[in-house]
Amino acid sequence: QVQLVESGGGLVQAGGSLRLSCAASGRTFGTVVMGWFRQAPGKERDFVAAINWSGSSTYYANWAKGRFTISRDNAKNTVYLQMNILKPEDTAVYYCALRRYGLGQDETQYSIWGQGTQVTVSS
User: Fold this and answer.
1) How far apart are CA 38 and CA 50, in angstroms?
2) What is the C-alpha separation between 61 and 57, in angstroms, rounded?
3) Which sign, positive or negative, has the C-alpha torsion 98, 101, 103, 105?
4) Which residues contact 86 (CB under 8 A, 6 or more apart)?
5) Helix (H) and strand (E) counts for the chain?
6) How far apart are CA 76 and CA 90, in angstroms?
7) 114: exposed, middle or buried (C-beta count within 10 Å: 0-12, 13-18, 19+)?
8) What per-residue confidence (pLDDT) applies to 24?
9) What are the phi and psi torsion angles at 90 (to 5°)?
10) For the CA atoms of the chain, what is the radius of gyration?
11) How far apart are CA 117 and CA 96, in angstroms?
12) Among the four 29, 36, 63, 96, which has the fewest Cβ within 10 Å?
């Protein structure tokens, strides 16, 4: 069973940057799609971005385009989310998740989730 562990969250001022990491255990990491989601207090969980097994294809929520970048290093079993020009409305718990096939934003298609990492953006 693959396990996912996020890190890199924290408190940052508006306009700043953070890079989140998600480390995966197991030997199948290089064959699966990885995604990032976020959930703000009192709101539903939202899709942020996804990346295919090789890193050659990515998919972003419209609001994330231009500010957030997803990438992966299969040699390190890690997927990243670089977040730039952060805004207070980016404050949320950020989760990484895994699915077997297909880039997409439907969270029900992601079968394994990390525990989340808190990102807080102050104004």
Assistant:
1) 12
2) 14
3) negative
4) 12, 14, 15, 16, 17, 18, 67, 119, 121
5) 0, 11
6) 27
7) buried
8) 94
9) -85, -5
10) 13
11) 9
12) 63
- pLDDT tens, the chain, 123 aa long: 889 999 999 999 999 999 999 999 977 777 899 999 999 999 999 999 999 999 999 999 999 999 999 999 999 999 999 999 999 999 999 999 999 988 999 999 999 999 999 999 999
What's the rounded Cα separation, in Å, for the pair 81 and 19?
A: 6
Query: Which residue type does 98 have?
Result: L
Return the ∠ at Cα 66 (arms to 45 and 51), rounded to 5°.
60
- Residue written as tokens 């952060």? 86
What is the secondary structure of 2-13 as a DSSP string?
--EEEE--EEEE
